[in-house]
Task: structure prediction
Amino acid sequence: ARAAAQVEFAAGREAFARGEYEAALVRLRTANELAPHDVVRFNIALCLERLDRIPEAVSVLEVLTDSEQLGETELARARARHDVLRRRVGRVVLDREGARLRVDDGESCEGPCEQIVAPGTHRVWISTRDGDETELEVEVTAGGRASVEPAPPPPVEPPTPDVPEPPARAGFALTPLGAVGIALGGVGLAASIGLGVHATSLHDAYVADSGSETNLALREEGLLYRDLTNGAIAVAVGGLVLLAVDVIWALTRLE
Result:
């Protein structure tokens, strides 16, 4: 594997020298898979920089700034390139432990973590262990950091207590007492009108025929019908009183 890695590494360096950075990147990554080494990774970072894939280059260089596999010259170059390029990128930072962060179409990382991105607007997804996912857009500036957090869970509404419905109010209704009052009032009113009219006619006849032998009989009959009329009026008033009492009783039941 080491011999094959050396062949791929040499081919990658040659492609880089010819300016074929895509081809060089493929060969160098193959070499690193066969025999991982920080020298190969440093050359991968140089390819990514030439391809203007600056966030990826910075991600590789950050691992190399404390490398023990690089010589002093390569280590100094790696730190210098990292110091220059890190000012050209921004970072999306997730502090929530256990949540996962994904930016655009990149791979996700588990928080707390950060992802290096180019300056601009990015689509961010945050998923929690509970299965909740938050999607948002963030604006990242060169050299800046954009902290993101999952959206808080929706508030739990307290259960609505069962409030018993108020009992239905009874409708307005008369009792038999009111019906009797209506009947008595109607009969008494009709009788008082009829008897009163007849009593009036007898009185008129009595006045017109004061010298007649029948005058005394007219007087007696007139007095009788007067008393009957007064009795009918009393019956009508009694019926109205009964009706009024029943109406008042019905109204008190509605309150």
